[in-house]
Write a structure and sequence with these properties.
Number of strands: 3
Strand content: under 5%
Number of helices: 17
Helix content: 55-70%
Length: 394
């Protein structure tokens, strides 16, 4: 990450969401700093903002720390990409260390350690540290939350402080990126279970507050999603997924209350040539009539179509490496968009092995909560730690 040629992730256009609110801009600006090569230098430029695309995210925490440290030891006016990488790396190593520590209580902990280190140090994850996406926060807070979850399950009666610590990390994970908002529901349900079993009024109140706070964080993340990214997500689902997979695109458009003539945009995404995003009438219609929930409803009443779509995207969904996103900087001697494969065993396993059993994995994930519930009902006499562990796994 820090020895030339360094690795990271090139900007696909998302860095402005973090850089803009913090007052920085890439140098150079424009298409030269996107997709194929890393941009190392960012300079003070409060005018570099895209308010339509900004979002709240817990990634502001490590990014702000990096900028603060840079101002202390170097300069206020410019910052190197590796400054963000150092903060991400320190948080990551701290989280992994904490997780390794709590796992040592298990008899097979050395196997768990080996598996954990194989997975989390893969370039498919580590490449994000030298970047300004929201994925670093999502992954780092997940590592911390996993460690606190194990610790929580090992205690006979979790204290208010333990529950509060776990809840704060849950909120940081939920607020890392908009897609994590849905995680607030199962995490809050678990916190509510802890509150129900808590002993003592003060302990119970703190855990109720924790559950409510986690739900609120999810609602805030979803509610804060601005019209522009919301429109892009909906547009891509309709015109890049639903219509290209349809035998009757006009009928599918009518089911959303959209004109059949928009079928001419089938196969386009929001940024592709000839996109319907440039059609003001279409944009107004989509914003007025379609949202995430109407798309979910569309698939739920057409399970065959849902299964077809899932089957098509499963293979690519299991890849850890983002498309069209180089790992090296200009001057590294690497070709445009080149990727690093130095520590990529887990990425390779995802691509070559797991993608071939993707349908089986999806079914397993779907069945796992039911298997967990069977354990809870058939093994009622086990200790509370066992029950909490099964509930956490569900």
């Amino acid at each position: 990450m820090f020895v030339p040629p360094i690795i990271g992730l090139a900007d696909q256009g998302d860095f402005v969401r973090i850089l803009g609110p913090l007052g920085y801009a890439p140098k150079p600006k424009g298409p030269d700093h996107k997709y194929f090569y890393l941009t190392r230098k960012f300079v003070w430029d409060p005018g570099y903002r895209e308010p339509r695309w900004e979002q709240i995210t817990s990634e502001f925490i490590p990014a702000s720390v990096a900028i603060g440290l840079n101002r202390t030891v170097s300069s206020q006016w410019s910052i190197d990409l590796t400054s963000f990488g150092i903060v991400h790396a320190v948080l990551f190593v701290t989280g992994v260390y904490r997780l390794l520590r709590v796992l040592r209580h298990f008899g097979s902990h050395r196997i768990a350690w080996a598996g954990l280190l194989l997975v989390v140090t893969d370039v498919g994850y580590v490449e994000y540290w030298n970047s300004l996406y929201t994925e670093p926060a999502s992954f780092i807070w997940l590592i911390f939350l996993a460690a606190e979850s194990v610790d929580l399950c090992l205690n006979e009666q979790p204290t208010a402080w333990q529950t509060s610590r776990w809840s704060i990390l849950a909120i940081l994970l939920v607020t890392a990126k908009t897609q994590n908002a849905a995680l607030s529901l199962p995490l809050a349900a678990y916190a509510a279970l802890l509150a129900w079993r808590a002993e003592g009024t003060r302990n119970k109140i703190i855990k109720i507050i924790s559950a409510a706070s986690i739900v609120t964080s999810g609602l805030v993340m979803y509610g804060y999603l601005l019209p522009a990214p919301r429109l892009v997500g909906v547009y891509n689902m309709i015109f890049m997924a639903i219509l290209p997979e349809s035998r009757d695109p006009a009928s599918d458009l009518e089911s959303f209350g959209l004109s059949p003539r928009y079928a001419r945009y089938s196969g386009t995404v929001a940024w592709s040539p000839g996109t319907g995003i440039a059609d003001a009438e279409l944009v107004n219609s989509v914003q007025a009539r379609v949202n995430t929930f109407s798309i979910i409803k569309f698939y739920l009443v057409r399970p065959g179509r849902m299964w077809t779509h899932i089957h098509l995207v499963l293979t690519s969904a299991l890849s850890l490496r983002p498309e069209c996103c180089g790992n090296f900087e200009v001057g590294s001697g690497k070709s445009p968009g080149a990727k690093s494969y130095g520590v990529a065993l887990w990425s390779y396993f995802h691509q070559e092995v797991l993608s071939r059993v993707a349908v089986f994995l999806l079914c397993t994930v779907g069945c796992f909560p039911l298997i967990g519930l069977m354990f809870l009902f058939t093994l009622r006499d086990h200790c509370q730690q066992f029950h909490r562990a099964i509930e956490m796994a569900i």
